Amino acid sequence: MVVIRTAIPNKGRLADDAAALLRAIGLRVPSASDRKLLVNSGKGRYEVLFASPWDIPRYVAGGAADVGITGLDIVEETGNHVKRLLPLNFGACRLTLAAPEDSPLRAVDDVPDGASVATSFPNLVRSYFRRRGKEVRVVEVRGAAEVTPNVGAADLIADLVETGSTLRMNHLRAIDVVLESRAVLIAGADALGSKGQEIREFASAIGSVVEAESRRYLMANVPTAKLEEVRAFLPGISGPTIMNLIGRDDMVAMHVVVTEDAVNGIISLLKEAGATGILVMPIERMVV
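Given the sequence above, the corresponding C-alpha cells read:
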C-alpha cells in the first residue's frame, strides 16, 4: 500500500486551518493538546508530519514528506525546488514594505540606495529591490520587525501584514507590497514521480474542499411563470436543476450552487419573484 506523508505546520497562523483541512477529507488529525510529531491517519494510507512551517519546503523537497502545506511566502523565501499544487483558502497576507509615518518615503522609488530594511525574508527583499535597480542593506530579524525603525535599527521594514493594524500601532505606513501570500499545497519532484497518482488523488480531495468553501447549495420553490426570470440571475455551475412538485403546476423546485458572497442578493431577488421555502446549506466537498 502506498502511503502519502503530509507535512503541516505544528504552530503559527496556518496550523489550525491546515489541520481542519485534512480533517475535512477524512484524515484523523489530533488536536493541538495531543499532538505527536508523526501520526498515522486514513486507515494507514496517510501519515501526518507536524513540523515548523519554515522546515516544510525542505522536508518536501528532500523527500521526508511527499506533500506539505505552508505559506507561499516561506516557499518563495526558502527557494526549495517544490511543485505548487494548489492555492488554499486561508493564510492570506501580504509581505509589505513599510516606513515610519513621519518618513519622507512614500513609494519604493523614494527609497535611497544604502537604506536599511529589517525583515525575516531577506531573499525576497533582496530580489524585490534588485528588480527595481536598488541596493539596500538587509537587516535580518526573527520577529518584531515593526520596532526596528523606532529604535534606529533600520530605516524600513518588510513584514507580513493581514489587516495593517500592527503597522498603525507602531506608526508605520505601507508603501508597497513585496509578495501576496496565502497557504499552498506543495509536493516534491521525487514523490510526484513515484507516487504521482496517489498525490493527484490527494490534491483532488483537497481541491474539492477548497472549491466548496466559497459555495452554497440553494433550494427554493419558484413560481413556474417566473422561472425564466429566475434563471437569468441563477446560472449555477451548468444551470439550475428544476424539478416538478407533486400536485403543483404553478410551482417548481429549483436547486442551484451559488457563490457565498452572492447568497444574500439572490435571496432578495428570489423573494421578489415570489419564491418560497428558500434553503441555503453549506457544501462539504465539490468536484467540478
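The radius of gyration is 24 Å. Try to locate this feature in the C-alpha cell string yourself.
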